[in-house]
Write a structure and sequence with these properties.
The longest helix is centred in the C-terminal third of the chain and has 28 residues. The chain is built from 9 helices and no strands. The protein folds into 3 domains: 45 residues; 26 residues; 88 residues, no CATH class.
């Protein structure tokens, strides 16, 4: 026989907040303190009970970070294993060295150009690190810059520069292929 769970009005309120957008526990605590005047212990108790009832599931921040790191590690390991057999032969060949140098240039030049121009124009530091992250198409750098900025300036700058950088990388790659062919 299936047991029916009753959902309280307060649990419905929390579920509606989570349906609007995924939130961390601390975001829920802050939001519910403002809206309902609830204490942190009240929110954590409610979330724990809702998890026990099977209404919601959650992972801790450390588990979330561990899963992300494991995922990227497994991805990089699989790429490395598939490319590793011929890596040394490719690197030491004349064409391989040319490709590696081209890759370094394609990676470094956008970051250096953005950094130098940004400093000359005296652009806000947080905007500049967002622009450099976008010019490198580097989401981990954006995450770090966002964590130290505590504002949206790096993300706005990243989203402004990223499309142009991707377009230029594609064009540069095509140009290099034509140049070396």
């Amino acid at each position: 026989m299936e047991r029916t769970q009753t959902v309280t009005q307060n649990e419905w309120h929390i579920m509606e907040l989570l349906w609007q957008s995924p939130r961390t526990l601390m975001e829920l605590v802050t939001l519910l303190a403002e809206q309902q005047g609830w204490a942190k212990s009240t929110v954590t108790t409610m979330v724990r009970r809702m998890d026990t009832k099977g209404l919601i599931t959650y992972t801790t921040q450390s588990a979330n970070l561990m899963l992300r790191e494991m995922g990227i590690s497994l991805f990089l390991a699989s790429v490395g294993i598939s490319a590793g057999a011929e890596f040394v032969d490719t690197v030491v060949s004349p064409d391989g060295l040319r490709w590696i140098c081209s890759g370094v240039l394609i990676t470094m030049v956008p970051a250096l150009i953005v950094g130098i121009i940004g400093r000359l124009l005296k652009i806000n530091y947080f905007t500049l690190i967002g622009m450099i992250s976008g010019s490198c198409t580097n989401p981990p750098a954006l995450a770090y810059s966002g964590s130290i900025a505590n504002n949206d300036a790096p993300a706005v700058a990243y989203s402004t520069v990223y499309p142009l950088t991707m377009f230029l990388r594609i064009i540069c790659a095509q140009f290099i292929i034509l140049l070396f062919a």
